Amino acid sequence: MGRTARMRGYSVWSLLREGVGGHRGWRPAWRDAAPKAAYDAVIIGGGGHGLATAYYLAKEHGMTNVAVLEKGWLGGGNAARNTTIVRSNYLNDESAAIYDHAMRLWRGLGRELNFNIMMSHRGVLNLAHDDGEMRQLKRRVEANRLNGVDAEWLDAHEVKEFCPPIHIGRDVRYPVLGATLQRSGGVNRHDAVVWGYARAACALGVDIVQHCEVTGIDVRGGVVQGVRTTRGDIKTSKVASVVAGHTSVIADMVGLRLPIESHPLQALVSEPVKPIMPCVVMSNAVHAYCSQSDKGELVIGAGIDPHISYTQRGGFHIIEDEIAALLELFPIFSRMKLMRHWAGTVDVCPDASPIISKTPVKGFYVNGGWGTGGWKATPGSGHVFADLVANDEPNAIAEPYALTRFATGKLVAEHGAAAVAH
Amino acid sequence: MLLVPCPNCGERDQSEFHYGGEAHRTRPTAPETLSDDEWADYVFMRTNTKGVFAERWCHTAGCRKWFNALRDTGSDAFLAVYRMGEEPPRLGGEEKEEAPADEAFA
User: CA distances (Å), A195 to each of A74, A295, A331, in order?
Assistant: First the structure.
């Protein structure tokens, strides 16, 4: 199998050349590989975090004999199902460290990957609807600033100025009293991030194997020997699980119990309209969040369904609540039609923080438990996880996210502090 | 929305229920003897099964009673319901959807 055709750069010139040439010269962005018999490391899960892990393993640690195994198609799981919101305004120091690490990588990612990820730093508002919430959010602004995360407080009128379609009248049960603003926050394009990472990882020699489901992990004497898949057995001494909703299922293959529960998380988009939402708006109290995609659709999300499920389906009553919340903030949207609705399976941790960790099984690493907030962390998560997989030791950013925190009690408690209820 | 088979009231919309999560987690009887790892296992670790899963529900807006259910988390099909304190019923060789507590409202 030929190692890496050199990546052909995308540029305005390549666009012009292909435009003139009838677009017959484009090549596949990445190689759809068949699995080899052995690798130095196997990454389970071809979503954003898995591909980012593969890319940074190859780029920063020189590990190129690596496979990414994806049971479906590339980026067809939660990478395709999230609402693409990017921010780093978390309360705790540990969280600010990893999410802002991701934010710094997002800034230059399009250029680094030579792929337009349509990163738009349009600003994220987190609304306050009562005095208690206002105090809490102002505290978070100060905590963010101490950690070098850009954050500011807006009163209701400044919120209206920043986001004209919002309703700030006092005639609703939970009026808007103010908001935090992270100007560097925003949205990007989920497919582009996945394809960009896949293309760049592939160019460095990583094998991306689709339709290859891991069915078992071979462990002998507490040490990983390889994985069994629907496309044959693969020998490897390092297995890195980055599978989001199915993290518990993979961990169970090595007899590991995790503090994770998998829930449906639903999202929906409206019909496309002309630009009306200039930023991202999130509300914890009435619980909805909304932005507008470049296609013009309002992208709307809220909380998880309460029950455990792997079905990627949720209940309509959740959608009803979500839309009720949205219309309290934006009565102007009341006659819009909704176009598509879907759900993903999110792996929720009890402290609403991820697990990036070694495990008692040597050579088995877990990156999961991102719950409802994984997208924003994609580059940072992949970056620190690659470091852990390559060196077998977590770096300073990943260290607080060890699995052992549930026994020591040193949780990274972001529930309620993370600016939106999970 | 799930149709939850309440053993007392029959099938009702999920919005009438409160979800109680994994069933059969019993509080340690000698808590002072537990190690940190054992506490972590009780407090935080979850089975999170993909497949037949034993869970608790409370019919908050109906009979207000707690009960257990076996549900396939891969398909959301309810397979059985049974009382709090009871062991989960053994399902037949083939998993098939059983009508809950038939005799109660046949």
Answer: 8, 19, 37
Query: Closest to A259 (Cβ–Cβ): which among B14, B46, B75?
Result: B46
Work out the minimum CA distance from A76 to partner chain B, whole angstroms. Answer: 18
The answer to whether residue B101 scores a pLDDT higher than 90 is no
Measured between CA atoms, the residue of chain B closest to residue A319 is B1
Instruction: Read off the tokens for B99.
Output: 């009508």
Number of domains in chain B: 1
Structural domain of B77: 3-27+40-83
Min Cα–Cα distance to chain A from B104, Å: 26
Whether B37 and A316 lie within 8 Å, measured CB to CB? no
pLDDT at A361 over 90: yes
The CATH number for B69's domain is 3.30.2270.10
Q: Which pLDDT does position A415 carry in this prediction?
A: 76
**CB distance from B1 to chain A under 8 Å?**
yes
B2 touches chain A (CB under 8 A): yes
| B32 interfaces chain A, CB cutoff of 8 Å | no
The reply to whether B44 falls in a domain is yes
pLDDT the model gives residue B106: 35
- Cα gap A161→A74, rounded to integer Å: 40
Q: Which residues pair with B70 in a beta bridge?
A: B54, B80
Fold of A32-84+190-259+351-414: FAD/NAD(P)-binding domain (3.50.50)
Segment A158-217, tens digit of pLDDT: 999 999 999 999 999 999 999 999 999 999 999 999 999 999 999 999 999 999 999 999
Q: What is the mean pLDDT of chain A?
A: 95
Rounded to whole angstroms, how far apart are CA atoms A278 and A333? 14
Cβ-nearest to A261 among B1, B15, B46 = B46
pLDDT one-digit tens code per residue, A125-173? 999 999 999 999 999 999 999 999 999 999 999 999 999 999 999 999 9
> What pairing do the DSSP bridges indicate for beta strands B66-72 and B78-82?
antiparallel
The CATH number given to A120-187+261-348 is: 3.30.9.10
Q: Model pTM?
A: 0.94
b/e per residue, A376-388, with b = 16+ CB within 10 A?
bbbbbbbbbbbbb
Average pLDDT, chain B: 89
Q: Mean per-residue pLDDT for A84-92?
A: 95
- The reply to whether B35 falls in a domain is no
pLDDT tier at B57, thresholds 50, 70, 90: very high
Q: What is the DSSP letter of A357?
A: E
Cβ contacts of A317 on chain B, cutoff 8 Å: 1, 13-15
